[in-house]
Amino acid sequence: MVSPLTASDGVAAVAFGLGNTVVDGEPCLRFCPRYPNHLLQFSSVKLALKNSQRQFYALHLGAPRAGSASGDEHLAHLGIEEAEADGTLALVASTYSRENDAIYDGVSRPGVRLISFAPVLKHGMFPLAEILSELLAIGERGTSAPVEVEFAVEVPCDPDERATFGFLQLRPLALSRESAELAITDEDRASALCHSRSVLGNGRLDHIRDLVVVDFHRFERERSQDVALDVARFNRRLVADAVPYVLIGVGRWGSSEPFLGIPVGWDQIAGARAIVEAGFRDFTVTPSQGTHFFQNLTSSNVGYFTVNPDAGEGFVDWDWLAAQPAVDEASCVRHLRFDRPLVVKMNGRTNQGVILKPKLSTKD
Predict the structure, then answer these.
(1) CB atoms within 10 A of CB 340
(2) Cα 293 from Cα 253, distance rounded (Å)
(3) If pLDDT is split at 50, 70 and 90, which confidence band does 245 have?
(4) Is the whole model's pTM more than 0.70, yes or no?
(5) CA quadruple 82, 80, 130, 299: dihedral sign
(6) Concatenated DSSP letters for 8-31?
(7) What DSSP string describes 61-114?
(8) What Rg value do the Cα atoms of the chain yield, rounded?
(9) Could you tell me the sign of the dihedral formed by the alpha carbons of 201, 204, 208, 214, in that order?
């Protein structure tokens, strides 16, 4: 966080069109409801051009389309120029002028359109930031924990019509009922199997001895659907034996686009008590950070680690994992079992977490 923002203020991720843009990890706008005009993504022209949403999802009202690029035959994935043609882009956009290398609110001048939500966040067309701030405060009071809110807003093109805020659902962010913070020490980080600065969850797990890992060195993105089936097979076996495990993989877990991750459904990984999402060795993709399974993660008390070395978000000791003997393996998916338990520590306040190697699995 950058001053005056703090972690406790919360962050909203918003996109023009349907919410698949946010769920699938595509470029969208992130802002703090308490400080809606502190937009790090638009702090420079270069960042705005790089990070602005350029496409949106809409509902396809005609006959179902085969082979949809969105992975859903009822969705249309369109460029934002389509929204400008029907007049809706003006509600959320700004314009980049190449002549003077500047960004202007609105779409009244020629140039590159950027989804900035300036009419809403800067000019008060709709009190989105105020509503979200109030909802987050109410939710935290009601659940005694930080919350995640899912919502939708409809702003009509006709200024005489009223905009509508749809409150869809609210979920607590805490993984466990532990109130004390769990310190992540330098010693933990130095000797960890996995460390992340982007962790969903809070608490400690110290009874897990099994690990299912997608081998970073052998994984090929074109075989991700086969890998998903292998992961599901190990999950089914461990669930049947009532054996909890830690799941470590590459790319986005649950991605609808197989080349961006491993396209599993929740039922195919539901036995995992902690899940690690790491980057590919040959391709950079924006992490999903658990958005595909957020409700399942929180309701089932599952921790979610995002490891993104390109952004300074931790590491996985892949070489150590590769050196461990496997109980069983299929293609690049390996099932490891240790004599002593792993320790998973997650600090919900700092969003840091570690998974300690079995030799370090002792009580603090």
Answers:
(1) 12
(2) 9
(3) very high
(4) no
(5) positive
(6) GG--EEE-SSSTHHHHTT-S-EEE
(7) -SSPPTT-TTS-TTEEEEEHHHHHHTT-GGGTEEEEETTTTEEEESSSSSSEEE
(8) 22
(9) positive
Q: Which residues are registered as beta bridge partners of 177?
A: none
User: Per residue in 251-290, is it b (16+ CB within 10 Å) or e — as a string?
Assistant: bbbbbbbbebbbbbeeebbbbbbbbbbbbbeeeebebbbb
Across 245-254, 333-342, 355-364, least confident range: 355-364
Mean pLDDT of the chain: 83
What does the angle CA 158 – CA 164 – CA 166 come to, to the nearest 5 degrees?
Answer: 150
Cα–chain center distance at 77 = 20
Rounded CA-CA distance 206/329 in Å is 24
Residue 352, C-beta contacts closer than 8 angstroms, at least 6 positions apart: 184, 195, 196, 197, 199, 346
261 touches 252 (CB < 8 A): yes
Is it the case that residue 277 has pLDDT exceeding 60? yes
In angstroms, the CA 160 to CA 145 distance is: 39
Token output for 358: 């079995």
- Sequence ranges of the domains in the chain: 7-172, 186-360
Query: What is the distance between the alpha carbons of residues 274 and 248, in angstroms, rounded to a whole number?
Result: 9
- The helix or strand, by DSSP H or E, that contains position 50, with its residue range, turns out to be helix 45-51
Pairing outcome for strands 328-330 and 252-253: unpaired
| Token pair in block for residue 242 | 């009532």
Residue with tokens 């003077």: 100
Distance CA 246, CA 233 (A): 15
Check whether 300 has a pLDDT greater than 60: yes
Q: Is the pLDDT of residue 361 over 50?
A: no
d(CA 48, CA 124): 21
